Amino acid sequence: xxxxxxxxxxxxxxxxxxxxxxxxxxxxxxxxxxxxxxxxxxxxxxxxxxxxxxxxxxxxxxxxxxxxxxxxxxxxxxxxxxxxxxxxxxxxxxxxxxxxxxxxxxxxxx
Length: 110
Description:
Blueprint: H1 2-12, E1 15-21, E2 38-48, H2 49-54, E3 68-71, E4 77-78, E5 80-82, E6 85-86, H3 91-94, E7 101-108
Parallel strand pairs: 1-5
Antiparallel strand pairs: 1-7, 2-3, 2-7, 3-4, 5-6
């Protein structure tokens, strides 16, 4: 049941990650001029999406072969997008932070 509630939350909050600030390094999201674009900045844990949805949780987040997401403290799972490549672009950027908390700075859009 938890997986389905998490899925509903993540479906409502899809993020377009403009940039990411890690370990206190601040960065500002640049507008892309997208409809309904909203600046976003939040803390989250980099996690393996399959782990959150199914409980199959390798320590290395799938070694870069699995979709990575951002799990907020309230259980919201945010799927970042990068370079117009849904779900594939941010994995290389996020894998070094597997199972770590980061501060995300980017844009939300629907």
